[in-house]
Design a protein that fits this description.
There is one protein chain. This protein has helices spanning 27-47, 56-75, 84-102, 107-148, 158-208, 213-220, 245-251, 254-274, 299-326, 362-373, 383-389, 447-468; strands spanning 11-12, 20-21, 230-243, 278-283, 286-291, 334-351, 354-360, 379-382, 393-401, 410-418, 428-433, 436-441. Strand 1 (11-12) and strand 2 (20-21) form a beta hairpin. It is built from 12 helices and 12 strands. The relative contact order is 0.07. The termini are far apart. The longest helix has 51 residues, at 158-208. The chain crosses the membrane at residues 32-50, 56-73, 94-117, 129-151, 158-178.
């Protein structure tokens, strides 16, 4: 008579070594079990003359009806109904109400039937279906009782009472057992899914180390397909390397050199990500970054972010150089940078089983050439880059150069600094000599740090004055 509490796939296998078995009770089995218990109750009532013997046809109906419902819900157009289970349960509630009417409202058998129906409605459809099914069953019970009348005595013989309670209890216990098994299996599945989710997250974070965060994010959110695909976009391209690194590599042990290089890349990468740059690759001591893909804020903002990143890298290099000097590295390492702006081809290059997300084009070659021409501590930019950032950043004309792939000579400019950081009100100051180095960015200093810095500067000034005397 009743549907199974929850029908799910028989097996959810997330780990082939530990399959999660979920034993559902199919609708057909649940309904067959319920109608069998009702048939037993009705047969006992007929046997003890609680109801007329002419109700053998109703007994046959209890046995045949589950098979009829199974045929209607699986072999006819009704199978296309999304709520076929609930509709069939409403038919079951109607049938139960008619049965209670034929039982003449005899107390124990009628109560057993009602409890069976209410339990099934609650298990299958929750409170809403339970209320609907109960109201429908009560209505049909009242109508059938009004038409058929009630039994002469509402008291039930002992054997009929025992069988009714036992039949209803067996149905409820078996259904509850299957529900418990399903709940336990679903909890195991939930735990296994959670474990796999945590493993997937951990693995994705490990894999993300091999991709720029923007690219990794677009792949794992489904915004970008992993396939050989490219497109034309206007990007700001940045190249940098360390002047003096070759000489340093001859002086230092490989382990110490590796540690220094990794520290440099880590610091520069944080600056690049701060400004939204897509880190393309590390080659030797060189870094390649571009702005404008996978996300872009417009050519002007991309160019400004790229140049701003370069200026901060140059400032940050001074701090790192002071730290390296304190560690015994005397070679004066300097960063040099080149930036160009223009249309490039960006996307996945390579083979189906091994791809590289990168960019190609003459603007990439120009940025690389500008980087190789730059002096230590210098940032060279192309004319198009200059035209987009000149209102915010002071630049100096450096003439023209000839670059392969460009028909005409290319005007280039040197980045001086942010216009806001120039003049008497500038926030950034630096001073460096043998035995002395100072780097000051007043915008980043808190009030508490200001007091400590002033005290240190006063002590240093007193020391220098004493040595003069």
């Amino acid at each position: 008579m009743m549907n199974a509490p929850l029908k799910v796939a028989k097996t959810l296998s997330f780990d082939s070594s530990k399959p999660v078995a979920i034993p559902p009770m199919p609708d057909y089995n649940g309904r067959l079990l319920a109608y069998t218990s009702m048939a037993v109750i009705l047969a006992t009532c007929i046997y003890q003359s609680v109801v007329p013997k002419e109700l053998y046809w109703l007994l046959a109906g209890c046995i045949i009806w589950p098979h009829v419902v199974h045929f209607l819900s699986r072999r006819t157009l009704l199978r296309k109904s999304a709520r076929i289970r609930h509709k069939m349960l409403m038919l079951d509630s109607t049938f139960a109400g008619v049965l209670v009417g034929f039982l003449g409202l005899v107390a124990i058998p009628s109560t057993a039937v009602v409890i069976t129906v209410m339990f099934s409605c609650l298990m299958v459809g929750g409170v809403r279906l339970w209320v609907t099914g109960t109201l429908l069953m009560a209505t049909t019970t009242v109508l059938s009782s009004a038409f058929l009348g009630t039994a002469e005595s509402l008291h039930t013989p002992l054997l009929t009472s025992i069988v009714s309670v036992a039949a209803s209890g067996v149905y409820i216990c078996i259904t509850a057992f299957y529900s418990h098994q399903q709940a336990r299996s679903l909890m195991q599945a939930k735990t296994q899914i959670q474990n796999q989710r945590e493993q997937s997250i951990a693995l994705s974070h490990k894999l993300s180390k091999y991709l720029s965060p923007q690219v990794w994010q677009s792949i794992f959110t489904g915004e970008r397909d992993v396939r050989l695909e490219t497109q034309r976009k206007k990007l700001a391209i940045f190249f940098s390397d360390i002047k003096g690194f070759t000489e340093l590599s001859e002086e230092m042990e490989p382990e110490a050199l590796t540690e220094l290089l990794n520290h440099y890349f880590n610091e520069m990468s944080e600056v690049a990500l701060k400004y939204g740059g897509t880190i393309d690759k590390f080659v030797g001591d060189s870094i390649m970054v571009f702005f404008g893909d996978p996300t872009s804020r417009g050519a002007r903002e991309d160019a400004f972010s790229c140049v701003s990143m370069a200026i901060e890298m140059r400032k940050h290099m001074k701090i790192m150089r002071q730290k390296w000097r304190s560690q015994g590295i005397k070679t004066p390492l300097e960063i040099r940078m080149g930036i160009s702006m223009g249309y490039t081809t960006v996307g996945n290059f390579g083979a189906e089983n091994r791809m590289d997300y990168t960019i190609i084009g003459k603007e990439v070659n120009l940025a690389s050439r500008l980087e190789s021409l730059a002096e230590p501590g210098e940032i060279l930019i192309s004319y198009e880059t200059f035209s987009l950032i000149k209102d915010k950043i002071m630049c100096r004309d450096k003439g023209e150069i000839t670059v392969k792939g460009f028909v005409r000579p290319v005007p280039i400019y040197e980045v001086v600094d942010f216009r806001r950081d120039m003049g008497p009100n500038r926030s950034f100051m630096e001073h460096e000599h043998s035995g002395f180095a100072m780097y000051l960015d007043s915008d980043k200093i808190t009030e508490k740090e200001r007091t400590s810095i002033l005290a240190a500067l006063e002590d240093a000034a007193d020391r220098l004055r004493q040595e003069e005397l």
